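Case 388 in the screening queue. Each case pairs one protein sequence with one candidate compound; here the compound is magnesium ion. For every case the pipeline is the same: read the inputs, emit a complex structure as tokens, and attach any notable structural observations.

Predict complex for case 388.
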Amino acid sequence: MKTISILGSTGSIGVSTLDVIAGNPSRFKVVALSAGRNLALLKRQIEIFQPEMVSVIDSDHAYQLGEILDRPLAVKILSGEAGCAEVASYRGVDMVVSAIAGAAGLSPTMAAIDAGKDIALANKETMVMAGGLVMDRASSRGVKIVPVDSEHSAIFQCLAGNNRREVRRLILTASGGPFFNLPVERFADIRLEDALRHPNWEMGRKITIDSASMMNKGLEIIEAMWLFGIDREQIDVCIHPQSIVHSMIEYIDGSVIAQMGVPDMKGPISYALAYPERIPGALPCLDLCTIGTLEFLPPDPVRFPALDLAYGAAGKGGTAPAVLNAANEVAVEAFAGGEIGFGDIPLLVKEVLESHRTQDIESIADVLEADSWARTRAMEAIKKGRIS
Ligand code: MG
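Case 388 output:
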């Protein structure tokens, strides 16, 4: 029996993870959950899974949660960053599912690694912001990091049984999102509800908007560099609208190994939770004869400048990827709030990156400082109403 703690239990990945666990009660037991403000959903999760410990965003929400639970004393209720770190490092936990969205996932994931917990990593920002530090820390603590991001789960699976030194390149597939056929002159008219209409994957709001701008793929390039110790020059992106091939590895002999499956996050979640085993029936069968056609196209750098921005930040290294990520988080929030247009998202990120002096990263504090600098800088640019 593997004991599990979930950081971000009420988000999209958290909910899917609990579905997988509910379907496999003899393999997994939930012992700790952290969530933000969605107390109604967290209450249901507590009733069903009976964790020993939960944490919420702040002490007000912790108090409210105690009020709405029928048996409040049956679970230890914590709050804030310290509470989340406790859920991440709780003694009785074997594996931590890191599924908080955005930069907020970094510190609790580090706390889990420091406590020697294996990680099922859905929070790509941990790798984007501080990949070098995280991988060093994980290897010195003997911690296994198994990716949950579908592309990285695919690469991880394609590496199994092969020699990493014989990899020629990684090919990350991207659905292309809802706008991959939209002419560039219509990007200015894109509304929030258009950006939220992802063709293949059911995901949270931030990542769905990132998929539409392809910044998600940009972040995934950086995530892959660190997770697999591969140079950015060895990572290519290929548009694959059907989202059946989740990514591929080309080896030095020209052989390409691809991982395929029905596009459902329960696949990579099940794989990470059960690793190195596989769960029977985790996904419905893939019927390629019914699907018939799989297409592959090159990405368009003019309509989707986010990819080049990410390659550029990866090349600069140091604090640049954290700045890219933070500026993008602010830009996506501003777009969702109607303050800037969809096409302004990469422009704002570019402006913030260009005004940043890249520093080396020696600690998580360095990363968080760059993150906070970039947020302030991005908000100033939005307030001025001038994004060049
Ligand atoms: Mg992905």
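Case 388 observations:
- The two ends are 55 Å apart (CA to CA).
- The pocket of magnesium ion is lined by residues 149-151, 220 (CB under 6 Å).
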